[in-house]
């Protein structure tokens, strides 16, 4: 059987690796972006000089040949689902490939679509000018690098995770940055108010011109068609030589809209990640679940879901039908120097049904929040800023519907900060003691890995 | 297959202004101090005041540089531009530094006369330049080893302070850096010098066989045995270190207790060598070479020591067809001098800061075997949080591909890991933690699930 995979990102590559592990099927992975799999999440570190492109590749280049995974560098222009044929773009040029030239077409028995996302554009005037870019692909990064020379100011539109990464990137080169953020506080559709305010502060500490409640009105170009200025909805004009569009991403499926594939925002799939067409699967950023598990969204454009989907699809294709159940939500990010981790459900507005314990240090650089439901006092979510918690422990507490009192007593189990770090969890315990008037009597020795291990093995 | 070509990110913007004029001033001042030492090689400016000025300039310049680089910045990871600067990416200036260091080691080991050392009569040149400090400490004129010891210690202290600035947000790094500074300054440098002043047998109490390969040489054993109570204590201490103390500490904490908290070679690597940690080779091939080489050196050290002891107890210098004196001479030349000194430190700017520790140190090999099979130490990973970015692998000075484990949710139990904790510090997603735990010692490397799939046999990553 020949399995073709379009997209060599985390989802496509994970699928390929697992299919290889489970079977001897012929595997071909196609990408127009780079010859070899690299970590998109590390794009910023290349620009900042922490790593070379080479260091972002999780496998050495000889890995693919050794594991009999064929790689093709090329762009798929269309798919003929009746004859199971991929047609490649013929005038696709790339001068940095070491792979053999892409064929004109390719026959498959099973097809995995792992197409990833594209940056959103909301029809702003001037959005297609030169010097206006998103940050998604390696090519985007090269553009950014090229334009960084003699760059006097960059304007970033959109206040998401990629926007703040872009701000950090320019900042690392001492290039002045203005950020236009539509919301009244950074990422406040995801972060509760206090945490969101911490991020605002973090951005401003770095001397970045953060403009909240501000929307892009227009990008103004010069005679050569290059962006030179942006105008905001408050009537301000900001001179700049680079405009970064980071207002979210959408599934990269535009080019398949007229095909027989069922497409909504993404390619619609069932719990086996199968599309409406026989033998065709969609995974990663481009997939949209018909019926996501409770607490999960139908499109989740994050790294680990791509990995899980890749593995799941591989099992199904190799004869072990496996449903996709990503489990309890978690994620992480970094806002300049503040690490952020979330486990479970942390609503933006802690409503009547929920309550939360919250501790924040005086500098507003660290915080711990634990959300629980008011009626049965069961823990449902953890939000950490500048503090590391252990995923397996938080997950087990949430899965086992653990009462807040028990979590507070054993909070040390979740500690994942480096050895000798201050006991931040103690601070939250104090908040709990003040709030409830109860006194916590810890039963566990601090930070002993053995207790963690025992706890994780314990059946409920 | 050819290396895929991408224009280096630094091409379009080759000189981001990472070093400002204050830092350049710092470098300048430190270079004046260094220049005075070079001048003294030719017996110019040979006075105590110039000596103190020289040390003062090196100290002030380095500290000014470090202060300017990190003060006023927000505490956090400071790796901006590491791959853009020639100094840290094998550029011209790194080659110059490497050649300079290598040359120094060659002269030190094999041509000490060029540094001014005289076995008879008074020394001159650089060696004599250090007399003021040597007289103050032990009331004896300096030797080339005193010069070396002083510069070595100075480097650990000054670059240690720089490292403390850089990692001020992380207590693990603060404590272990204070620890290596203490062990170098007090235990390895000051204490032996004072003992010499008191005419007592002197010894670097933390320097253990087989890193200290001459511990069982006849002259050392005789010296200790004849050195009164203190000498006997040192002999017993040295043997207890090997047989009891070190195995116990390694069982509880892994080899890091030595390699990243105590050892002088490790101390220099972690402080002065820190800017070069990313240069370690991460390829599978390097790992293969490492295992052959480091264990080969260990075998060499054990065989050599066995022969030396045989000779000591039997008086016969011939063991089978080999002469134990010439074997020990070869060991000293090849491993003691050429590998640990010339390659180990001289090549910092070219091959990374732990070349010796990774490929050559017999001590590391023993501790590593113990760490792998009989220790509580491991690095655990935080579930599925890894984004495979590669920061951990890039900054692992031992060339361990940490990411390969982390992205599978697998613990990292590797013989070579010195427990520096840098992988855990640079990880932007809080995925790694160094731990000691006893219950699951034999399952430290078994796979954890990285993927949430309902039934177990599917969920495990093999
Ligand atoms: C800058 C940045 C930072 C991020 N940071 C994080 C993070 O910290 N944590 C996190 O969880 N997520 C992060 N993400 C999101 C994460 O990277 C994505 O969710 C993930 O990479 C998606 O993987 P994928 O395999 O679905 O698709 P992709 O990685 O996008 O791979 C799709 C590939 O398919 C190729 N392709 C598409 N169509 C065709 C065609 N017709 N012909 C040929 N090839 C085609 C594309 O060129 C691309 O290479 C980040 C994303 C970006 C851009
Ligand atoms: S694995 Fe981590 S702790 Fe071990 S040597 Fe490498 S960077 Fe240091
Ligand atoms: S462990 Fe951390 S540093 Fe290493 S690859 Fe994963 S996310 Fe990156």
Secondary structure: elements and pairs:
The complex is a heterodimer of chains A (460) and B (462).
Chain A: E1 2-6, H1 10-22, E2 26-31, H2 43-47, H3 62-66, E3 69-73, E4 76-80, E5 85-88, E6 105-107, E7 110-113, E8 117-119, E9 132-133, H4 138-148, E10 154-157, H5 161-172, E11 177-180, H6 193-205, E12 209-211, E13 216-221, E14 227-232, E15 237-239, E16 242-245, E17 249-251, E18 267-269, E19 280-282, E20 287-289, H7 303-317, E21 330-335, E22 338-344, E23 354-360, E24 367-373, E25 379-385, H8 391-399, H9 404-409, H10 424-436, H11 449-457
Parallel strand pairs in A: 1-2, 1-7, 2-3, 7-19, 9-16, 10-11, 10-16, 11-12, 18-20
Antiparallel strand pairs in A: 4-5, 5-6, 8-17, 13-14, 14-15, 21-22, 22-25, 23-24, 24-25
Chain B: H1 21-40, H2 48-70, H3 92-110, H4 125-129, H5 131-138, H6 144-166, H7 171-197, H8 218-225, H9 228-253, H10 256-259, H11 264-271, H12 284-314, E1 318-319, E2 322-323, H13 324-343, H14 348-351, H15 355-360, H16 362-373, E3 377-381, H17 391-394, H18 402-406, H19 422-426, E4 432-436, H20 456-459
Antiparallel strand pairs in B: 1-2, 3-4
The complex binds flavin-adenine dinucleotide and iron/sulfur cluster (2 copies).
Description:
The complex is a heterodimer of chains A (460) and B (462). Chain A has 11 helices and 25 strands. Chain A is of the alpha/beta class and 460 residues long. Chain A folds into 3 domains: 2-118 and 250-317, 3-Layer(bba) Sandwich (FAD/NAD(P)-binding domain); 132-247, FAD/NAD(P)-binding domain, CATH 3.50.50; 330-456, FAD/NAD-linked reductase, C-terminal dimerisation domain (Enolase-like, domain 1). A 5-stranded parallel β-sheet of chain A has the order 3-2-1-7-19. Chain A has a 5-stranded parallel β-sheet with strand order 9-16-10-11-12, covered by helices on one side. A 5-stranded antiparallel β-sheet of chain A has the order 21-22-25-24-23. In chain A, 48% of the residues are buried. The mean pLDDT of chain A is 95. Chain B has a domain at 374-458. Chain B has helices spanning 21-40, 48-70, 92-110, 125-129, 131-138, 144-166, 171-197, 218-225, 228-253, 256-259, 264-271, 284-314, 324-343, 348-351, 355-360, 362-373, 391-394, 402-406, 422-426, 456-459; strands spanning 318-319, 322-323, 377-381, 432-436. Chain B has a two-stranded antiparallel ribbon with strand order 1-2. In chain B, strands 3-4 form a two-stranded antiparallel sheet. In chain B, strand 1 and strand 2 (322-323) form a beta hairpin. In chain B, helix 7 (171-197) packs across helix 11, helix 8 crosses helix 9 and helix 12 packs across helix 16 (362-373). The longest helix of chain B has 31 residues, at 284-314. Residues 1-14 and 452-462 of chain B have low confidence and may be disordered. Chains A and B meet through helix 2, helix 4, helix 7, strand 21 and helix 8 of A and helix 7, helix 17, helix 19 and strand 4 of B. The complex binds flavin-adenine dinucleotide and iron/sulfur cluster (2 copies). One iron/sulfur cluster (SF4) binds at residues 396-398, 400, 402, 412, 417-423 of chain B.
């Amino acid at each position: 059987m020949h399995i073709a995979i379009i997209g060599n990102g985390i989802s496509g590559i994970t699928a390929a690796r697992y299919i290889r592990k489970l079977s001897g099927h012929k595997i071909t992975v196609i990408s127009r972006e780079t010859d070899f799999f690299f970590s998109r999440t590390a794009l910023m570190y290349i620009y900042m000089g922490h790593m070379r492109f080479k260091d972002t590749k999780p496998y050495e280049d000889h890995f693919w040949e050794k594991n009999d995974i064929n790689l093709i560098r090329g762009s798929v222009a269309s798919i003929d689902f009746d004859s199971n044929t991929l047609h490649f773009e013929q005038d696709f040029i790339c001068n940095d490939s070491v792979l053999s030239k892409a064929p004109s077409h390719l026959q498959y028995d099973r097809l995995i679509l792992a197409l990833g996302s594209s940056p959103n554009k909301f029809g702003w005037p001037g959005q297609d000018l030169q010097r206006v870019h998103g940050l998604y692909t390696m090519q985007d990064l090269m553009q950014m690098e090229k334009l960084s020379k003699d760059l006097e100011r960059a304007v970033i539109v959109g206040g998401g995770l990629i926007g703040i990464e872009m701000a950090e990137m320019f900042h690392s080169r001492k290039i002045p940055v203005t950020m236009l953020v539509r919301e009244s506080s950074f990422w406040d559709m995801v972060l509760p108010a206090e945490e969101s305010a911490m991020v605002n502060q973090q951005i401003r500490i770095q001397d970045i011109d953060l403009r909240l409640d501000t929307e892009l009105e227009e990008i103004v170009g010069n005679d050569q068609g290059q962006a030179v200025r942006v105008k905001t909805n408050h009537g301000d004009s900001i001179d700049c030589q680079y405009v970064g569009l980071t207002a979210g991403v959408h599934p990269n499926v535009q080019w398949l809209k007229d095909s027989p594939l069922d497409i909504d925002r993404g390619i619609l799939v069932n719990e086996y990640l199968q599309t409406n067409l026989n033998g065709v699967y969609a995974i990663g950023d481009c997939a949209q679940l018909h019926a996501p598990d409770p607490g999960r969204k139908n499109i989740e454009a994050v790294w680990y879901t791509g990995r899980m989907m890749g593995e799941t699809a591989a099992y199904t294709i190799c004869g072990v039908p496996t449903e996709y159940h990503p489990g309890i939500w978690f994620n992480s990010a970094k806002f300049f120097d503040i690490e952020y981790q979330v486990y479970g459900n942390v609503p933006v507005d802690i409503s009547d049904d929920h309550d939360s314990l919250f501790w924040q240090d005086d500098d507003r650089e660290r915080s711990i929040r634990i959300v629980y439901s008011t009626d049965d006092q069961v823990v449902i979510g953890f939000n950490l800023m500048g503090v590391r918690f252990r995923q397996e422990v938080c997950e087990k507490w949430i899965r086992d519907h653990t009462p807040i009192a028990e979590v507070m007593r054993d909070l040390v189990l979740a500690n994942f900060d480096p050895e000798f770090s201050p006991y931040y969890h103690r601070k939250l315990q104090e908040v709990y003691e003040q709030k409830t008037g109860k006194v916590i009597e810890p039963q566990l020795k601090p930070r002993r890995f053995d207790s963690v291990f025992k706890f994780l093995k314990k059946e409920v | 297959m050819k290396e895929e070509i991408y224009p280096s990110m630094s091409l379009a913007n080759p000189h981001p202004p990472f070093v400002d004029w204050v830092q350049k001033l710092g470098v300048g001042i430190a270079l004046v101090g260094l220049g005075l030492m070079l001048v003294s090689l030719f017996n110019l400016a040979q006075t105590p005041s110039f000596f103190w000025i020289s040390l003062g300039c090196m100290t002030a310049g380095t500290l000014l540089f470090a202060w300017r680089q990190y003060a006023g910045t927000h505490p956090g990871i400071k790796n901006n531009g590491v791959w853009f600067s020639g100094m840290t990416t094998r550029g011209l200036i790194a080659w110059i530094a490497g050649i300079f260091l290598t040359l120094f080691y060659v002269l030190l080991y094999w041509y000490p006369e060029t540094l001014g050392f005289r076995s008879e009569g008074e020394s001159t040149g650089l060696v004599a330049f250090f007399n003021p400090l040597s007289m103050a400490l032990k009331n004896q004129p300096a030797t080339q080893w005193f010069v070396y010891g002083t510069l070595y210690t100075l480097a650990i202290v000054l670059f240690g302070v720089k490292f403390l600035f850089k990692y001020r947000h992380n207590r693990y790094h603060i404590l272990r850096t204070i620890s290596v500074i203490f062990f170098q300054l007090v235990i390895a440098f000051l204490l032996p010098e004072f003992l010499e002043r008191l005419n007592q047998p002197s010894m670097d109490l933390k320097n253990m066989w087989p890193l200290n390969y001459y511990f069982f040489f006849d002259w050392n054993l005789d010296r200790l045995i004849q050195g009164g109570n203190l000498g006997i204590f040192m002999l017993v201490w040295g043997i207890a270190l090997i047989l009891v103390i070190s195995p116990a500490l390694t069982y509880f904490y892994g080899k890091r207790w030595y390699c990243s908290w105590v050892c002088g070679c490790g101390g220099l690597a972690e402080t002065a060598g820190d800017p070069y940690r990313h240069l370690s080779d991460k390829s599978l091939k390097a790992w293969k070479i490492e295992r052959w080489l480091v264990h080969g050196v260990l075998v060499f050290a054990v065989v050599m020591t066995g022969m030396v002891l045989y000779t000591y107890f039997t008086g016969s210098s011939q063991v089978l067809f080999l002469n134990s004196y010439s074997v020990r001479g070869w060991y000293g030349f090849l491993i003691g001098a050429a590998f640990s000194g010339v390659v180990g430190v001289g090549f910092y700017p070219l091959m990374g800061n732990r070349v010796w520790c990774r490929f050559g140190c017999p001590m590391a090999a023993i501790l590593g075997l113990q760490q792998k099979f009989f220790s509580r130490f491991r690095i655990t990973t935080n579930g599925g949080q890894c984004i495979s970015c590669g920061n951990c692998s890039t900054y692992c000075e031992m060339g361990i591909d940490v990411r390969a484990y982390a992205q599978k949710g697998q613990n990292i139990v590797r013989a070579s890991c010195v427990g520096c904790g840098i992988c855990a510090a640079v990880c932007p997603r809080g995925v790694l933690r160094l731990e000691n735990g006893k219950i699951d010692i034999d399952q430290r490397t078994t796979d954890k699930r990285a993927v949430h799939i309902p039934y177990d046999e599917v969920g495990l990553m093999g």
